[in-house]
Amino acid sequence: QLQVLHEPLIDEDPVFIATCTERELRKRKKRKFSLWVRQCSSTGFICQIYVHLKEGGGVDGLDALKNKPQLHSMVAKSLCQNASGKNYIIFTGPSITSLNLFEEFEKQEIYCCGLLSTRKSDCTGLPPSMLNNPETPQSRGQYRIRMKGNMSLICWYNKGHFRFLTNAYSPVQQGVIIKRKSGEIPCPLAVEAFAAHLSYICKYDDKYSKYFISHKPNKTWQQVFWFAISIAINNAYILYKMSEAYHVTRYSRAQFGERLVKELLGLEDTSPSH
């Protein structure tokens, strides 16, 4: 039920980077596409991917995507086209979060919780008084709330002002953020949920991004192909860990990938460790 829209971390091959000279690194071309995913924030399973090409130079090019929040909304709608009517709760970053998009999703029974930025987000329809920082100093954990129907705009202070837009959580429900040095910091439940599920995605990136297949062809479609294959293998491993087979033979991600390749190639597994 809990999912997040984001760009997954795609690591470069560390061996390739280590052997490159500074001149070769400067000459390397940047990827000509942007990869977005809709991902389960509880298991890490990637439900859907969306590839946005830089080539073409039209209004939907990657350069325009970075500068226009409405094009981020287009990406979000494409990723959530099969999610309507299932009461999903979608977490979004500042570039996607907007009142118009969240209201449109609510009509499709998709509920949202997003971090809002006055610089990166589309703030159309939001009260200006909540977008400006108050003049009086605030203590950590203090927050202000404005509501419109089921939609809540939360301004929460923790060494800086953080704004959240949500129609998935009641603003009166209390939560807590636990910091190692500061201890517990009170906050609305929406803030706690956003932090918890985004932190899981960071752990997924740390664990699985190293297993993306490093392939550097000239053709963009080949790069997209290998990234999609990498995501499929990671998804397969997540399903394997959720199955009963994992309790019989606990393969690591590296062992699982090795076994998968051998089975696809029809090679007999003679390793004593399997």
TrEMBL record:
GO molecular function term, any single one: transposase activity
Organism of provenance: Buceros rhinoceros silvestris
Alphabetical GO biological process terms: non-replicative DNA transposition
Matches recorded under Pfam families: DDE_Tnp_1_7
Domain of life according to the entry: Eukaryota
Sequence ranges assigned to domain PiggyBac transposable element-derived protein in this UniProt record: 2-237
Example of a GO cellular component annotation carried by this entry: nucleus
PANTHER family, A to Z: PIGGYBAC TRANSPOSABLE ELEMENT-DERIVED PROTEIN 5
UniProt name for this protein: PiggyBac transposable element-derived protein 5
